[in-house]
Design goal:
The protein has about 240 residues and is an alpha+beta fold. Helix content is about 40%, strand content about 20%. It has helices at about 5-35, 35-50, 55-100, 230-235, and strands spanning about 105, 115-120, 125-135, 140, 150, 170, 175-180, 195, 200, 205-210, 215-220, 225.
Length: about 240
């Protein structure tokens, strides 16, 4: 065998060896690519992300915080209850308002008012009626005395010009006054006659009786009364 033949065989053997090595290397890369390394990594990741004992303890603490939140909610309920108590205070204030309304003076009655009748010094043919509160409470007189002289079927007319701005109110012991024109000064009016009784009814149905001076007075169709006044001078101006 010649040297040239030997070199040729060696070259061919080397070529075959190189091809085998290349094929082996390619197969190794394919095996590495198809290996289940990602699954192994995923398992490791799951293990690393799983809750530790410390994490579980923290979760339990969070549960305690939740119950603290419930306690806070209970506190809010207590605050709402305070609001209701405030409303109760308003109701009590409202009640005191109605109490003040009940303090207004009531209407006078014959049981707590004494009425007297006296001749006025002037003008002539006039009576002065005096109503005195003999009770313990303040009361309000009617607008004017609905005086009934003798057996008269109607009360005398009232002098509208004598109407005061408000009703006459009497505290205990105080007096109100009304004037009565019994007859015309010159005797020109008709229907003149003598009467011996005077009664004055009140709004509650009670009736006061007043004694007439000298036991009787002369009246005619000019008989007129004034509104109740707070002074005798005002009552005799009409």
């Amino acid at each position: 065998m010649s040297a040239r033949t030997t070199r040729t065989r060696l070259f061919a053997a080397a070529t075959v060896a190189l091809a085998a090595l290349s094929l082996t290397a390619c197969e190794g890369d394919g095996l590495n690519t198809g290996s289940p390394k990602p699954a192994s990594s995923s398992a490791s990741a799951d293990e690393s992300t799983g809750p530790s004992d410390d994490a579980k303890d923290d979760t339990g603490s969070a549960g305690s915080s939740g119950s603290a939140g419930k306690d806070d909610a209970s506190g809010s309920g207590t605050g709402s209850g305070s609001g209701k108590n405030t409303g109760g205070d308003k109701d009590s204030n409202s009640g005191s308002g109605s109490d003040s309304d009940s303090d207004l003076p009531g209407k006078c009655s014959a049981s707590d008012v004494r009425i007297t009748a006296k001749n006025a010094p002037r003008p002539i043919n006039h009576l002065l009626l005096t109503a005195t509160n003999t009770g313990s409470k303040t009361c309000t007189l009617p607008q004017y005395p609905a005086a009934r002289f003798g057996e008269a079927q109607s009360v005398p007319p009232v002098a509208e010009s004598s109407k005061p701005q408000s009703l006459t109110t009497l505290a205990s012991g105080e007096s109100g006054y009304a004037g009565v024109r019994l007859s015309s000064g010159d005797g020109s009016a008709e229907g003149g006659h003598e009467v011996s009784t005077l009664t004055i009814p009140f709004e509650d149905g009670s009736i006061a009786r007043a004694e007439l001076p000298s036991g009787s007075v002369h009246v005619d169709n000019d008989l007129t009364v004034t509104y109740w006044q707070t002074s005798a001078a005002n009552a005799l101006e009409y």
